[in-house]
Amino acid sequence: MRAKILVATQQDARFVPDTAVAEFAGTQRVFSVKDGKAVEHRVRLGRSADGARELLDPLPDVTEVIVAPRGLGPGTRVKVSTDNAS
Hints:
It is a single chain. By secondary structure, this protein is mainly beta. 0% of the residues lie in helices and 36% in strands. The protein is built from no helices and six strands. The protein has a three-stranded antiparallel β-sheet, with no helix packed on it. The chain starts with 13 loop residues before the first strand and ends in a 31-residue tail after the last strand.
């Protein structure tokens, strides 16, 4: 039997998908897109829930992150697609 116990709530918590987090040399990063290029954001992560990780610090002016950033680096040219069929 499995159970979950809610011990605290935080209404302004921000989460990103687990797949959006890139880890390298002990640091966690997520990437967003600005002017057609990848922008790296070093993040501190909190709790994990249902395939997502909590961001402990806000990402100012970031509303979307790249969900599969494998092989990306800062400044890599990217094309945003709205096609959800994979």
